[in-house]
Amino acid sequence: MSKKTQEEHNPLKPIIAHAKEYGFVFPSSEIYEGLQAVYDYGQNGVALKNNLKQLWWAAMTQWHENVVGIDAAIFMHPTVWKASGHVDSFNDPMIDNRDSKKRYRADNLIEDKAAQYEKAGDTQKSAALLTQMAALLEAENFEGLRQLIIDEGIVCPISGTANWTEVRQFNLMFSTEMGSVADDSNRVYLRPETAQGIFVNFLNVQKTSRQQVPFGIAQIGKAFRNEIVARQFIFRMREFEQMEMQYFVKPGTELEAYEYWKEKRMRFLQAILPAEKLRFKIHEKLAHYANAAVDIEFEFPFGFKELEGIHSRTDFDLSSHQTFARTKLQYFDEQEPDKDKRHYVPYVVETSIGADRLFLAVLSNALTISQGVDAKGETKERIFLKLHPAIAPTKVAIFPLTRKDGLPEKAREVFDEFRYDLSTVYEDRGAIGKNYTRQDLVGTPFCLTIDHQTLEDGTITLRHRDSTEQERLSVAEAKAKILAATSFKTILAQL
Ligand code: ATP
């Protein structure tokens, strides 16, 4: 398939177009032809993303009494990344196709092949291939990985050839110099994950929050990775946002905590995304420090892919920081009856999800095209964003039916009723039908129309986005209904 036809067949195309057209996501520096794998969020995008972040924050820190939040700096002492293993081994095995000059992650090419076998019903062949790949990755046998790609007849999707280079490792961290002298001793990194900011603050938080193990620390923040294969819109970006939580537990209880968080995180996602589009995928290959790991995959328009990772990381990170920083990172457990076991380095269970990836999952799931019948009885295509009301960028849109007879003034009064509590827009231009359509396209769940009857009896028309049904209610009734439907409680109550 040529590059052009491939782009035409990109299943994300309608989402990318919608995101741009309606102020959700723009390519970065677009007037300079963009910057690869970097994106900007527009007026509706930032509202949706902020809502997702606030929801996650509430689900972690507000809902769980024993989880608190922090906001660590992006720059950290360079030794942090030595201790975490990122300087030495935050690499991806890459392979180039000599004809198309395109670079791929070797493991992704093999995984795609396994998915093809699976799709064709050959589950055994798929599983065998993944096991073989896991063994080669484990042994860092790159020549073996290359041979596997060739033996499996994997070709470059662009050139269609198997003219592959050798497999090489690329470090994914961005670096820069701090201070005025540009030499290696001043090298600092842009954090490739937010987790390390939590580990190095473990004792600060534990002591000042008076939390006792088990407890968690949550953080939302930017992370940077020099992704070599940066494709698929905001699925894989070079600058992105993570929402991570590290849960510190007594050694030996980590698998129990792992099961707990696995369940909790799945329930969270199921509250805003359809259950049939979510599944667990146990890791074939465990990182050397992990004793259990699972991804929650979402069915994106291009197939099931990782949305969130839940990892039981043992005491790897804290112990490593103890060694590198020559500082004790131990917890004193008053409850432990055995005196000799009271001081220990806690084990950690991590939950980690990309805010942008969640945004993509939510947006692609929400984009709905349905056939409707218009006022003239003609069948018409209707496009709307079926977002959960609690995360929609705008919750209510208020329109006066006409711009005269005191309707705008009355509508403004209603607007004032709502704007303190909810993200509300007021619009007095254009026909009501067009205004409804415009709000549908950005996912506004409720519209209120103020007409002449409103002046008489105070009632308004409440229009529902998904069903397009309308009902006549008092302003107070409408407000109560909308507040209930848009509250985070509707989601948190399901956790
Ligand atoms: P992948 O295998 O897709 O590269 P990963 O296993 O490297 O992801 P983690 O290091 O576990 O990802 O990061 C946790 C989460 O951060 C991921 O589940 C994903 O949601 C998000 N994430 C990771 N890399 C990116 C990226 N380049 N762009 C957007 N989100 C990302």
Descriptive notes:
By secondary structure, this protein is α+β, with helices and mostly antiparallel strands. It has two domains: 57-348, 2-Layer Sandwich (BirA Bifunctional Protein, domain 2), CATH 3.30.930.10; 387-492, Rossmann fold, CATH 3.40.50. The strands form seven sheets. The protein has a seven-stranded mixed beta sheet with strand order 3-9-10-16-13-12-11, with helices on both faces. Strand 17 and strand 18 form a beta hairpin. The longest helix has 20 residues, at 43-62. It is globular, with a radius of gyration of 26 Å. It starts with a helix and ends with a helix. 35% of the residues are buried. The model is unreliable at 1-7 (pLDDT under 50). Bound molecules: adenosine-5'-triphosphate.
Briefly say what this structure is:
37% of the residues lie in helices and 26% in strands.
List the helices and strands and how they pair.
Blueprint: H1 3-8, H2 13-21, E1 25-27, E2 39-41, H3 43-62, E3 67-70, H4 78-83, H5 86-89, E4 91-97, E5 103-105, H6 106-119, H7 123-138, H8 142-151, E6 164-171, E7 174-177, E8 187-190, H9 195-199, H10 202-209, E9 215-224, E10 239-249, H11 254-272, E11 278-282, E12 292-300, E13 303-312, H12 316-325, E14 331-332, E15 343-344, E16 347-354, H13 355-366, E17 367-373, E18 379-385, E19 396-400, H14 407-419, E20 424-426, H15 432-442, E21 446-450, H16 452-457, E22 459-464, E23 470-474, H17 475-486, H18 489-492
Parallel strand pairs: 3-9, 19-20, 19-21
Antiparallel strand pairs: 1-2, 4-5, 4-6, 7-8, 9-10, 10-16, 11-12, 12-13, 13-16, 14-15, 17-18, 21-22, 22-23
Bound molecules: adenosine-5'-triphosphate.
